Amino acid sequence: MNEALKLMESVVSGIGKKRPRHKKFLGAACNYLNEHEKTDLEEYLNFLSDGGYDVDHMVACYLTVLDDTVNEQLYFAKERRYRHSSFSEVKDSVYFNESYMEKYMVGLAITSFLWPNHSDIRRFFLETMPLDVPGDYLEVGPGHGYFFITAIRRSSFRSFTGIDISPTSITLTRRAVEYFVPDRAPRVHLQEQDFLGEMEGTPRFDAIVMGEVLEHVENPGTFLRRIGELARESSYVFLTTCINAPAIDHIHLFRNEREIRDLITKAGLSVRDLLEIPYHGKSLVECRRDDLPVNVAYVLDKLQ
Q1: Would you call 19 exposed, middle or buried from its count of C-beta atoms within 10 A (0-12, 13-18, 19+)?
Q2: pLDDT in tens, 4-55
Q3: From residue 144, how far is each of 21, 41, 147 by CA, in Å?
Q4: CA–CA gap between residue 19 and residue 133 (Å, rounded)
């Protein structure tokens, strides 16, 4: 065993023992990571370990996401729709259920390395995020906090604001900030609130990141318009969502990329860069033909 990656290898091994049919996927996923990414995953797992998580609990968090996703995919394949379509149907069982939300968020953080589609999104974020721009950074729905702390560590923004409706997500993000970047904590503002609610003053931001949020809300166009209102003319806007990609708390079904692009345009934004990631082992053509999941990530500009 590579001692430098002890936790990573233990977690991957533990998942494989629990779900033997998933072993081949995990092997390919680990090979997809470069050495720096493996080190980053090990660092995140050490953060969990130092916070009281043992390997079994890390495995359980990952399996929470995996098993729920598989169940929702089976439902979608049969019904051609998501199981839920309103926030009221999922808020108490997911966002305000501390025990479940903690496993869900930590599991998603691990998938950001162990699922190649999520790795591609993380790489796209790192490739496009401005490193030398001063100003104010906003993240809508920081979730497990990994993208949030990545921005703090790598960028030159002077302040960092995170808004999330889930108290569990705010707690996880705060713990990550205190662990990874304690010296930057005075520059961080975490707010447990609805993104569409009132914000103090009339803030504008030089970077706005909203990862995997639109599919969780009933009116994604409203969220995009709010981004347009808060973005400055030259802001970096990074957005991700998904098409035909069921999950336990996905309530807005995008059936193709054009639906998303139309909402972006109506919100006064334009697409500067786009990444489309097909379902594992499939092409974009196959995904479009068979309504298979596609992840999409955008860098957006504000229309002049």
Answers
A1: middle
A2: 789 999 999 999 999 999 999 999 999 999 999 999 999 999 999 999 999 9
A3: 27, 14, 8
A4: 44
Q: What's 81's DSSP letter?
A: S
Exposed (0-12), middle (13-18) or buried (19+): which is 139, by Cβ within 10 Å?
A: buried
**Packing angle, helices 23-32 and 116-128, rounded to 10:** 20
Which residues of the chain register pLDDT less than 70? 1-3, 200-202
Beta bridge partners of 188: 160
Evaluate if pTM is beyond 0.70: yes
CA nearest to 185, candidates 160, 163, 220: 160
Cβ contact 175:245 at 8 Å: no
Our CA angle for 166, 168, 171, nearest 5°, is: 115
Percentage helix, strand, coil for the chain under 3-state DSSP, each rounded to 5:
55, 20, 25
Q: Which single residue is written with the structure tokens 């974009």?
A: 284
* Phi, psi of 299, deg, nearest 5: -110, 125
Residue 282, judged by CB atoms within 10 A of its CB (0-12, 13-18, 19+), counts as middle
DSSP string, 258-289: HHHHHHHHHTTEEEEEEEEEESTT--HHHHHH
Q: What angle (nearest 5°) sits at the alpha carbon of residue 275, between those of residues 141 and 301?
A: 65
> 210: closest CA among 220, 197, 199?
220
Please name which of 30, 173, 10 lies closest in space to residue 106, comparing C-alpha atoms.
Answer: 173
Per-residue pLDDT of 110-148, as tens digits, reads 999 999 999 999 999 999 999 998 999 999 999 999 999
Distance of alpha carbon 19 from alpha carbon 11, whole angstroms:
12
Rg (C-alpha) for the chain, rounded Å, is: 19
In angstroms, the CA 159 to CA 155 distance is 10
Q: What does the pLDDT read at residue 201?
A: 63
